[in-house]
């Protein structure tokens, strides 16, 4: 592990020195002033090869650092560092071909340049990392579930607020806040939240249905519809939280375990505000 970290530091330091490659290529600019059109075009083409190689290696290094920092990540779709080192090899081959009559030395020099570049800047990640890890998959599934719940409850809040009643809007927003705090507290263990998926989906469907019933009855009897809506909504919220508490109590004998999780979640959110 220590050797791997040392190698990464060396590669990162090499990538930081990429601009020096352009300084090393400055003598090629002399070809521009030789007066020959062929020399001018050749110098511009080779300088563009080098600039392209430096750009690709720099972008590949950024992708490498993001890959290393992530717990799970897909390999880069395009191996930019490998392509950049290949371009350096092509550049050295072209430069050497003008100085040798035999093709073998330029080929060997181009391969050597590519290998040295690979040693200096490293290779791109060639495989996905952590995507088949059960913990990672559970985290992504729990995150998706929480996002769906938040979106569904926000949609209900929007629909209710369109009716123009501040009281039922405030009640709906309160239920949204309570529900999301409960889910975030349970989400500290993704598996615990995933186990709650079926009752959560059922809860969201019932809440959306109550919003639909409220909208339909609003024209004929807004007060009666609002009263029934608030009563049912709070009953649904209490039932959902009660079910979550029962599931939590089966996992631990501590009857205050969920309250503790809720308190911790609230303190963490307030600390970030």
Question: What would you note in describing this structure?
Answer:
With 273 residues, the chain is mainly α. It has two domains: 17-121, no CATH class; 134-254. The protein is 77% helix and 0% strand. The protein is built from eleven helices and no strands. The longest helix has 33 residues, at 37-69. The protein is elongated. The model is unreliable at 254-268 (pLDDT under 50). The chain crosses the membrane at residues 15-33, 39-58, 78-97, 103-121. This is 5-bromo-4-chloroindolyl phosphate hydrolysis protein. It comes from Roseivivax halodurans JCM 10272. Keywords: Membrane, Transmembrane, Transmembrane helix.
Topology:
Elements: H1 2-16, H2 19-24, H3 37-69, H4 80-97, H5 104-121, H6 134-161, H7 166-186, H8 190-194, H9 197-217, H10 222-251, H11 257-272
Helix pairs in contact: 3-4, 4-5, 6-7, 6-9, 7-10, 7-11, 9-10
Assign an overall shape: elongated
E-strand count: 0
Mind summarizing the main beta sheet?
none
Cα end-to-end separation = 38 Å
**How many helices does DSSP assign?**
11
Sheet-strand content, in percent, reads under 5%
Low-confidence stretches: 254-268
N to C succession of SSEs: HHHHHHHHHHH
What is the average per-residue confidence, as pLDDT, rounded to a whole number? 78
Helix content: over 70%
Secondary-structure content class: mainly alpha
Total number of distinct structural domains = 2
How big is the Rg? 31 Å
């Amino acid at each position: 592990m220590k050797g791997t970290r040392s190698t990464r530091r060396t590669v990162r330091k090499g990538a930081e020195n990429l601009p020096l490659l352009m300084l090393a290529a400055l003598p090629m600019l002399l070809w521009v002033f030789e007066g020959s059109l062929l020399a001018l075009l050749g110098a511009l083409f080779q300088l563009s090869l080098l600039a392209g190689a430096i750009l690709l290696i720099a972008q590949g290094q950024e992708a490498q650092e993001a890959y290393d920092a992530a717990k799970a990540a897909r390999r880069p779709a395009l191996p930019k560092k490998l392509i950049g080192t290949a371009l350096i090899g092509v550049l050295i081959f072209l430069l050497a071909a003008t100085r040798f009559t035999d093709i073998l030395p330029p080929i060997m020099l181009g391969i050597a340049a590519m290998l040295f570049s690979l040693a200096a800047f490293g290779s791109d990640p060639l495989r996905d990392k952590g995507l088949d890890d059960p913990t990672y998959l559970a985290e992504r599934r729990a995150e998706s579930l929480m996002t769906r719940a938040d979106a569904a409850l926000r949609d209900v809040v929007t629909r209710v607020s369109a009716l123009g009643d501040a009281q039922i809007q405030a009640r709906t927003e309160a239920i949204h806040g309570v529900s999301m705090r409960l889910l975030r507290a349970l989400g500290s263990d993704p598996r615990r939240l995933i186990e709650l998926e079926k009752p959560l989906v059922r809860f969201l469907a019932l809440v959306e249905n109550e919003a639909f019933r409220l909208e339909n009855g609003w024209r004929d009897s807004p007060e009666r519809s609002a009263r029934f809506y608030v009563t049912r909504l709070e009953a649904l919220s209490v039932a959902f939280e009660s079910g979550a508490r029962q599931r939590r109590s089966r996992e631990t004998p501590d009857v205050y375990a969920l309250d503790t999780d809720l308190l911790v979640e609230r303190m963490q959110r307030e600390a970030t505000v």
